[in-house]
Specification:
The structure holds two protein chains of two kinds. Chain A is an alpha/beta fold. Chain A has a single domain, classed as Aconitase, domain 4. Chain A has eight helices and eight strands. Chain A has a four-stranded antiparallel beta sheet, covered by helices on one side. A four-stranded parallel beta sheet of chain A has the order 2-3-4-5. Chain A starts with 6 loop residues before the first strand and ends in a 7-residue tail after the last helix. By secondary structure, chain B is an alpha/beta fold. Chain B is built from 16 helices and 19 strands. In chain B, the strands form five sheets. Chain B has a five-stranded parallel beta sheet. In chain B, helix 6 packs parallel to helix 8 and helix 13 packs parallel to helix 16. The radius of gyration of chain B is 21 Å and the shape is globular. Classes of the chains: A alpha/beta, B alpha/beta. At the A-B interface, helix 4, helix 6, helix 7 and helix 8 of A face strand 1, strand 2, helix 2, helix 3 and helix 5 of B. The complex binds iron/sulfur cluster.
Chain lengths: 199, 467
């Protein structure tokens, strides 16, 4: 995982509720490998029409939101399927953070594990950010993971994050190495669990 | 202190807890499918191997062709590659694979219970969001992403924060023609797509006690559609009878020891839940979805909602859903004309589901193209032994081999844009069954009825008998 550093960027609005991972990456792109890149698959059936032409009205396609690094989303963003491709596609497209009132549980975890910062803020705070993002405002948002803040103009909101995941993201560490350092505890558990299939 | 079923399983699997990272949970069963390729890639990049191949079990389901049931039958080279990767990765790691051609192959959430891989009181994970299905047997089962798959392959554990607990007590009596699918659609319609986000849901009450294991599997399967990673049902006599003699279930003296342990798992009578919900299903009619989210479910005798009459926040989504679905506000559900039918998936591809569907069509003819895809090869074999395949084929249904098929269409079983599909699966998301395809979720009995009548009917009027 890449280290997550503070950044200035612009935000794109996609405030619908319940955007599922089938919409974020349609299933027909799931045979692609991580290394193949998934930028083109992101919101494919909304960004492009049936002939493959860009749909101008879709938020991400509007000139003022091109190159946005922050996605402002609605409730339950990333619900549905566990496909981690949804996170890869957002990252490959250039997003580094998604702000929403709530997230699908598996998507939320997948994001943290891949360095895409999921920020949970109350709807009223997201609404303030949506207003600030309307019309496109180049690099007017600032996210600091160290301070757990998202700032635009004079407005700044603080968000919560699990301290362990924060540390992993800041250092670019993945938790497999961390867990393997607890191997003794795992082996002890296996020895003592009383389940013959585990010892 | 009184403890719930969930508390008991959680604490039994606590390897260690840290205030910052949560609990390192031990994983008893890791079920994998084609989607595990990324997990194996991560493992390889890190120079690690599968820590407990003996606790890891694999099947091929998502990309399996339902006509030419063979790896060479996967038409697309990329997709064939992902099936071959599963075969290669499991072989190299010494993981047992119920692959294409194996007599126990099937959808991962169908074969886990069927083979007795899923046992009460265990933790089960799979890189698939419908893993809560296995909770029907009293297992703490949940879906994970590819990075977590890699973590489990490498360590047999996962970091998790303990969710809150919700109990849904279901009382009343199921009317004829209704099933667990109608119950879960009614629950999701009531609490919404994120109504159980952050919770483990325990389903309880007299109705659940009377449900068969297959019906309980259907109920737990769609927990994620209400936002819950976990759905649970306490093990009881029905569970124990179901598991006895399954290939991977304990045997001999072990069996008695396990059963004694399973009997202690149920939530203590005064266990406390963060949220307690009660629903009475006495008046429940067959359910069907009208929109593009499983929460958009209504009774078959109802009308498609009018966006002008839903609350302001939901209005835009309702309008967009009606537009995508090609429906008009206020029209009667029984007037919706269908183009195609799919019976199958991990929600409703079990033998009892096929029996229900066959009961409706017996002696009738399908007037729509209709596909029946058994949830596992064993379900297929059993159905053929009972003659269900002949009921389906003589009514004009296509009888296929087992896989996920049109639930997600990754194997190429898709409908065409604009078509309206009656489906026994679990997701009616935009484009789920193909670009521009309109999916309506329902029970197997209702889907079978649509195949023969072309439109929804109250199946309670064509099937008799109470349960
Ligand atoms: S049948 Fe559908 S929901 Fe179930 S595992 Fe397969 S694709 Fe997923």
């Amino acid at each position: 995982m890449q280290r997550f550093e503070s950044f200035c960027g612009s935000a794109a609005p996609l405030p619908r509720d319940n955007i599922d991972t089938d919409q974020i990456v349609p299933a027909r792109f799931l045979a692609r490998r991580r290394a193949d890149g998934l930028e083109a698959a992101l919101f494919h059936d909304q960004r492009f029409d049936k002939t493959g032409t860009l749909v101008e009205s879709f938020a991400l396609n509007r000139p003022e939101h091109r190159g946005a690094q922050i996605l402002l989303a609605g409730n339950n963003f990333g619900c549905g399927s566990s496909r981690e491709h949804a996170v890869y596609a957002l990252l490959d497209y250039g997003f580094r953070a998604v702000v929403a009132p709530s997230f699908g549980a598996i998507f939320f975890q997948n994001s943290l594990l891949n360095g895409l910062l999921p920020i949970v803020l109350p709807q009223r705070d997201v609404n303030v950010l949506l207003v600030a993002a309307a019309g496109g405002t180049a690099n007017s948002f600032y996210i600091s993971l160290e301070r757990q803040t998202i700032t635009t103009g004079a407005t700044s909101f603080t968000f919560d994050i699990d301290p362990f995941r924060k540390e992993c993201m800041l250092l670019g560490l993945d938790d497999i190495d961390f867990t393997l350092r607890q191997l003794d505890a795992i082996i002890a558990y296996e020895g003592g669990s009383g389940d013959p299939s585990l010892s | 202190m009184p403890r719930s079923l969930f508390d008991k399983i959680w604490s039994q699997h606590d390897v260690l807890s840290r205030p910052d990272a949560g609990t390192l949970l031990y994983i008893d069963r890791h079920l994998i499918h084609e989607g595990s390729r990324r997990g194996f890639d991560i493992l390889r990049d890190k120079g690690l191997s599968v820590r407990r191949p003996d606790l890891t079990f694999a099947t091929a389901d998502h990309y399996v062709p339902t006509r030419a049931h063979a790896t060479q039958g996967v038409p697309d080279a990329d997709k064939r590659g992902i099936v071959e990767a599963l075969e290669g990765n499991t072989k190299a790691a010494g993981v047992q694979l119920f692959g294409i051609g194996h007599r126990q192959q099937g959808i991962v959430h169908v074969i886990g219970p069927e083979l007795g891989l899923t046992l009460p009181g265990t933790t089960v994970v799979c890189g698939d969001s419908h893993t809560a299905t296995h909770g029907a047997l009293g297992a703490l089962a949940f879906g994970i992403g590819a990075s977590e798959v890699a973590h489990v392959l490498a360590t047999q554990t996962l970091w998790q924060h303990k969710p809150k607990a919700m109990r849904i007590t279901i009382s009343g009596r199921l009317r004829p023609g209704t099933s667990a699918k109608d119950i879960i659609l009614a629950i999701i319609a009531r609490i919404g797509m994120s109504g159980a986000s952050g919770y483990v849901v325990e389903y309880a009450g007299p109705v659940v006690d009377r449900l068969s294991i297959e019906q309980r599997l259907t109920l737990c399967n769609m927990s994620i559609e209400a936002g819950a990673k976990f759905g649970l049902i306490a093990p009881d006599d029905t569970t124990i009878a179901y598991l006895a003699g399954r290939p991977f279930a304990p045997t001999g003296d072990d069996w008695d020891r396990y059963v004694a342990r399973w009997r202690k798992l149920a939530s203590d009578p005064d266990a406390v839940f963060d949220r307690d919900l009660a629903i009475d299903i006495s008046d429940l009619r067959p359910m069907i979805t009208w929109g593009t989210s499983p929460e958009d479910a209504i009774q078959v005798d109802g009308c498609v909602p009018d966006p002008d009459h839903v609350d302001a926040k939901a209005r835009d989504r309702a309008r967009a859903a009606l537009d995508y679905m090609g429906l008009s506000a206020g029209m009667r559900v029984t007037d919706i004309a269908f183009d195609r039918v799919f019976i199958g998936s991990c929600t409703n591809g079990r033998i009892s589901d096929l029996r229900e569907a066959a009961r409706v069509i017996d002696g009738r003819k399908a007037i729509l193209p209709a596909l029946v895809v058994p949830g596992s090869t064993e379900v297929k074999t059993q159905a053929e032994a009972e003659g269900l395949d002949r009921i389906f084929t003589s009514a004009g249904f296509e009888w296929r081999s087992s896989g996920c098929s049109m639930c997600v269409g990754m194997n190429g079983d898709l409908a065409t844009s604009g078509e309206r599909c009656a489906s026994t699966s679990n997701r009616n998301f935009v484009g789920r069954q193909g670009v521009g395809v309109r999916t309506h979720l329902m029970s197997p009995a209702m889907a079978a009825a649509i195949a023969v009548f072309g439109k929804p009917v109250d199946v309670s009027q064509i099937v008799d008998g109470d349960r």
